[in-house]
Amino acid sequence: xxxxxxxxxxxxxxxxxxxxxxxxxxxxxxxxxxxxxxxxxxxxxxxxxxxxxxxxxxxxxxxxxxxxxxxxxxxxxxxxxxxxxxxxxxxxxxxxxxxxxxxxxxxxxxxxxxxxxxxxxxxxxxxxxxxxxxxxxxxxxxxxxxxxxxxxxxxxxxxxxxxxxxxxxxxxxxxxxxxxxxxxxxxxxxxxxxxxxxxxxxxxxxxxxxxxxxxxxxxxxxxxxxxxxxxxxxxxxxxxxxxxxxxxxxxxxxxxxxxxxxxxxxxxxxxxxxxxxxxxxxxxxxxxxxxxxxxxxxxxxxxxxxxxxxxxxxxxxxxxxxxxxxxxxxxxxxxxxxxxxxxxxxxxxxxxxxxxxxxxxxxxxxxxxxxxxxxxxxxx
Length: 380
What we know:
alpha+beta; PrpF-like; EC 5.3.3.6; isomerase; methylitaconate delta-isomerase activity
C-alpha cells in the first residue's frame, strides 16, 4: 500500500466562488470516511489549508459531489459541502448557488449529460435541499461553452452566460417560503435587545435585518466590518437567534458553537452611491433598487452568494419584508441590488394561488470555467 492515494478531481470556478468537484463514485460510500477524505483534499483543518487544495477562504473552501440521478426528473445528483477551514467539519445543511453554476458544465464535460447544440438544459437534483435546479448551459461541439460576452460582478473578464432557475426551491430548507409564517418577526437578541428581521427560505434560508437598526450604514466593506469584532459578534448572535427560532439549531450555544454556514444573514439599506472595494469605481444608486451585504461563515461575503441572491430577490417580492420595503422596483420582473463589488440581477416572478405566494421564476445568470483537472494526492 502506498503512502498516498490519488483521487480524480476538477477545480472549477462557479460564479464568484471556486470549488473542488468530485464524482460520488470516486469517494468512499461511508459518510464519515468520505468527509475525512474531503477534509484531507482541502487541507482542513488548518487556517492556511497549506497541505491541500483549499484557498483558506470561505469562497474557495467549497466542494461539489456529483453522481447519477436518484430521482427520475433529474439528470444528475449534486451535493454541496462547505468545508470548514479551522475544524474537521463539512456543512451540508444548505446549497451554494455559485458552485451550482459549475454543475451543469461539469456534468456535460464529464459525459454524465449528453449535450445538445446551442443550449443544454441540465436538471440538477440538489440533495442538500431535495430541490431541482434547472441550468441552461451554452454548449459547443458537445462541450460546455467557456467564452462569451457575459459579465458578472466580482469576476474578471467575460464568459458564457449560464442561467439557473431556482423556482422549485421555495421552502428549500424549512419547507416554507416564510418559515415563521410572518413577513417580519421581532428577535430578542442576547446583549442587544429587539431587532426586526425577515426570515425567508428560497434556495437557502437568509435572515434579513435593516442596517440602520443595528448601527450600520449598509455600505461597509468586508475589511471595515472585519475590523469590528463587536459587530461580527452581534451579527452572529442575530443569525443564531433566528436559527433557533426556525428549528435549525437547538439553542443559541448550539448555533454559535457549530459555526455552520447556514442560515445566512444579510443587512439591507436604501440604494446609495458607494465604492466597489475591489476597483474603487463608484457604483451608482440609480442602477440599483437597494443595497445588501451578506454574512457567510462569520465574515462578509466579498460579493454575494448565489442562493443568497435568489433569496434576496424573492424577499424583495414578498409584501411586508424589510427587503420589500426598500425595493424600489419590487413590482418589476428583474430585481437589481448592490453588493461590495458591484450589482447583481435576479429574475423573480410570483403569483398568488389561493392564499399562498408561489414562485414561478427565480433565476440568475452566472459564468463558470474549468481551471484544472487531474488527481489530488492525499495521505492515507
